[in-house]
Amino acid sequence: MGQLDFSSWSIERFETHMAGLQRGQELERIRLEAQSRVYRSGLPRADRLCWAKLSLAANRRFHGDGPWEQARMRSQEFELRTWVIERLGADADLDWNPEALATDTLAALSLEPGRAESVAAGWRDLPEETIGDLRRHKNLTAHINRLMPRLGPGPIKDQLARWASVRQYLP
Question: Can you give the pTM of this predicted structure?
Answer without folding.
Answer: 0.93
